[in-house]
């Protein structure tokens, strides 16, 4: 038997062995679903461009013992500072992001920037480097992904603005909404 024939016999033998498996078809490697990329109870949000920007990114919301850890990463944004907020409506369908509504403020605080007293959804500013990439990480005490909790971010939107949040009333004068993502479980 030559090498090609031997290879064919080996492949056929392996194929037949696979057909004789005791496992039901749903357990074959082809049918297995990939493992989740985020831990259970964590929300991963895609941030999409709004207001004619080219921005894209992600936001991960991860419950901790001290509140909700939020990690935001964006690319293709203008260098500089950009205000980042949670808005009250989970709707990013408007081209300018206006469908996301106002800042999420269940406790009725004045607008502010961390670490000051502020809306629970006021994250301050993200710094975007010259390459157009920016990252922001914040721990938000009192926030959660529990839909029954008073500070739940589920069903709301995360918004990245064109300008820095200057801390002024009523919403930080952050300009256009250039990125938006709906927070879903």
Q: What's a concise summary of this model?
A:
With 185 residues, the chain is mainly beta.
Percent in strands: 25-35%
Major beta sheet summary: 8 strands, antiparallel, barrel
Number of strands: 8
Which architecture does the CATH hierarchy give at level 2? Sandwich
Q: What is the string of helix and strand elements?
A: HEEEEEEEE
Kindly report how far apart the N and C termini lie.
58 Å
Q: Could you walk me through the main structural features you see in this protein, from its secondary elements to its overall organization?
A:
With 185 residues, the protein is mainly beta. The chain has one domain (43-182): Immunoglobulin-like (Sandwich). The chain contains one helix and eight strands, in the order H-E-E-E-E-E-E-E-E. An eight-stranded antiparallel barrel has the order 1-2-3-6-5-4-7-8. Strand 1 (43-49) and strand 2 (56-64) form a beta hairpin. The longest helix is centred in the first third of the chain and has 17 residues, at 3-19. It is globular and about 35 Å long. 30% of the residues are buried. Residues 3-38 have low confidence and may be disordered.
């Amino acid at each position: 038997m030559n090498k090609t024939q031997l290879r064919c016999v080996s492949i056929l033998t392996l194929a037949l062995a696979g057909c004789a498996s005791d496992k039901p078809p749903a357990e074959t490697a082809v049918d297995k679903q990939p493992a989740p990329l985020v831990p259970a109870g964590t929300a991963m949000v895609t941030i999409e461009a709004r207001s004619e920007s080219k921005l894209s990114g992600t936001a991960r919301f991860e419950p901790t013992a001290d509140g909700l850890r939020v990690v935001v990463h964006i690319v293709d944004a203008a260098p500089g500072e950009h205000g980042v907020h949670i808005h009250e409506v989970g709707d990013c369908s408007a081209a300018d992001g206006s469908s996301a509504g106002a800042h999420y403020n269940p406790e009725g605080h004045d607008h502010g920037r961390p670490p000051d007293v502020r809306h629970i959804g006021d994250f301050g500013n993200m710094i975007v480097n010259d390459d157009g990439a920016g990252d922001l990480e914040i721990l938000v005490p009192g926030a959660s992904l529990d839909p029954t909790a008073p500070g739940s971010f589920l069903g709301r939107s995360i918004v990245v603005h064109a300008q820095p949040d200057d801390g002024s009333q009523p919403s930080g004068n952050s300009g256009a909404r250039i990125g938006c993502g709906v927070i879903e479980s």
